[in-house]
Amino acid sequence: MQRKTVLDTAETARILGERLPPALPVSVRVSPRAKGIVLRMLPGQGLEVVTPAGVPVQFLAQAVEARRGWIARMFERLAAEGGVPGEAPALPRPERLVLTAFGRQWRLSYLLKDRPGCALAPRGPGELVVSGAVGDPAAVAAALAGFCRDKAGELLRPALAAASRETGLAYTAVTIRAQRTRWGSCTARGRVSLNYTIAFLPWELCRLVLIHELCHTVELNHSPRFWAVLERHIPGCRELDARLNAARHYLPLWLAGTAATADPP
């Protein structure tokens, strides 16, 4: 019986990396559960090639070559958000801010100044300049988070009011916060609290959070009665809720050190 060749993952990664941008790290992982070759772009790690055992290197190279366009697009996105690792930790300085739920975005530029912290100021239509200690990732992230929280509040308050009119579910007050453990919450007195980061989600997931919290004004727990109320207002809400459980990847990379990604409401 011929002995089975064990894939040298490090050497294979080097070979595949020669076909890709030099700044993009490549890793290869052999998985006994993989049914085919899978390419994954991982923030902070680069391109991961997952392969079943026994796949020749040339087949992996063909898979990478076939997805070159997708790899290039994802690489540009990671680079724009500071998610491509290098020899030193990448600075999370994005080229733009995007509040996906509301289709709002701003281009970003950076200006180094000898001062603590960072500040944002408008430079033109849809453009912001970040000035100050722009080499400090924490200072940049704090400034971006403050801006996004204010803008998200301006957009989420009327969105919740519109959802209230749509559903007929009334609330007494709303606050916009940087909640560390939840997308939103609601008290027995109908006070709704929203995590501003839901503005980074697709609109259908953002809307789900809004109406989810409004439904808590009549059903405070997650009983079958609660889900029946939510289903009346959002048919198929269980499927959307499952998407919300895995929605962390919609949050920008620079946000990691400022507000923890949230759990479902």
UniProtKB/TrEMBL annotation:
InterPro entries to which the protein is assigned, alphabetical: UTP_pyrophosphatase-like (IPR053136), YgjP-like_metallopeptidase (IPR002725)
Domain YgjP-like metallopeptidase positions: 37-246
Pfam families registered for this protein in UniProt: YgjP-like (PF01863)
Name of the protein: YgjP-like metallopeptidase domain-containing protein
Species of provenance: Solidesulfovibrio carbinoliphilus subsp. oakridgensis
